[in-house]
Amino acid sequence: MxxxxxxxxxxxxxxxxxxxEIVSLACxxxxxxxxxxxxxxxxxxxxYASYFPNLIDRSRFNRRRKRLAPFIIEVQEHISxxxxxxxxxxxxxxxxxPVVKNGKRKKGSNHF
Length: 112
Known about the structure:
Layout: H1 19-31, H2 37-47, H3 58-67, H4 69-84
Helix pairs in contact: 1-4
């Protein structure tokens, strides 16, 4: 890749996907709020297979993603520091978390 270092770690055999590609996909996964590793992989294989000809299997990606977590965090912090100076207001996209589950009382029981 233009003389740039593409792997942060040393591999005995050259991997199909380099570390930069793993970090990029992990950041995209986070930015798109994809929490499921299965969902990401099924989407990539189904809709974007031609864009990722060297896509490794899901379990290998997840193992490498976990090993590369410090680099992923560094990239995310760098991007967020750039965004921090852009606007006074930010939008947070989150998933609603149920706090209370309303249960129905069984019919015919005399519990008070």
